[in-house]
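Protocol step 4 of 6: structure prediction from sequence.
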Amino acid sequence: AFSGQALSALGRPDAFAKIAFRQLGLYCLAFPIAAHFGIVAVGFAWSVLSAIMVPVTLVALRQSFGLDVQGLILKSARIALSGAVMVGVVLLARFVLPPGPWAIVGEVAAGSIVYAAVLESFFLPGHLARLVTIVRGAVPAFSS
């Protein structure tokens, strides 16, 4: 998401401009075609094209300053797996919890707790503690 800002900060706005120009060209080709099939197809095209651009930007960042792409992908995959477990718990909670206005609260609570527990226990130990430290430092009311 922030590859353009990173490339610009590294003194490579030209690389960012090339990537953005290619992305614009892909969008200009795909959206008119997808529009014939409805708004869902346009949304799908947006998602697919955004996913296609990820490796392009990662290569540009690796070439510009040696970004550890493999480490970044592994960390992202761990977070995605935690999210997949959370989705499974939320869907299971839909079937288990009685219908009503509090069901969504239960689903969100169960999903959040499971996501945090799985992420912290199995995939990225210490990640949540680092996030809490960052938030505490960023919000003056929490830092004291």
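Step 5 (inspection) to follow. The mean pLDDT is 86.
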